[in-house]
Amino acid sequence: MAPYLVGVSLKMYFSHARTLAWCSAVAEVARAHPAVRDGAAELFVIPSYLSVTAAVDLLRGVAAVGAQDLAMEDEGAFTGEVSGAEIAEVGCRVVEVGHAERRRLFGETDAVVRAKTDAALRNGLAPVLCVGEAERGDPESVAQECVRQVDDALSSARAAGRNGHVIVAYEPLWAIGADSPAEPDYIRSVCAHLRRHLDSSPDFAGSRVIYGGSARPGLLGEIADDVDGLFLGRFAHRAESLEEVLDEVLSTRAALQAAGGR
Length: 262
Hints:
Blueprint: E1 4-9, H1 16-32, H2 34-37, E2 41-46, H3 52-58, E3 64-67, H4 84-89, E4 94-97, H5 100-106, H6 110-122, E5 126-131, H7 139-159, E6 167-170, H8 184-199, E7 208-211, H9 220-223, E8 229-232, H10 239-259
Helix pairs in contact: 1-10, 6-7, 7-8
Keywords: Cytoplasm, Gluconeogenesis, Glycolysis, Isomerase
InterPro entries: Aldolase_TIM, TIM_sf, Triosephosphate_isomerase
Enzyme class: isomerase
């Protein structure tokens, strides 16, 4: 059975000191947890920029570390930007691209997302490509829109002949920051469609689909057949909550194995 992928973005909630304390606590949990030790779960953590290099050291061997954004270019006179080349150089393996907050707060367009996705892939980083709809709709129509977003984001990389591993994070915009995630059947329908689409793309073989948007402990068991994992935010601000999700990975795998699924 393929491992479930469990990611956490800390956004800008923590100070540097609190980020390091959290990473230390997560590393302790992960090293002791059978879901991580036995390969049932893979972890990635995306802290704020100033904490990235320390997080790489603290989480070495138990979680991949990523950045929350990257520049479209690899070097040059771009004050305040951080390139994919530099992100990879310090030991990151993933980078978030196209989050709804980047679009809403900083005006990122589809063209920017295309360029940043290409920048990630040409530097050997797996883009955590965020897609989702603005308003709740028919799951089939939503799935088609999300597929469009994925294909658009990957179009520049494809045109350049690039391939690689992509993590598609399905995050309905209306569920980000909400009290609860989207309904399990809704998530399953959209993510199953996305997975089938990625499976039909040999240039991005092995890519995965995870669910974000107020994802929390207790959700994985309800959607496990149709997702490859979860993308957690504020509901993982306590290391104990992340431990609950890892416990759920084990119980979910056991249930699926018993049923002959996944």
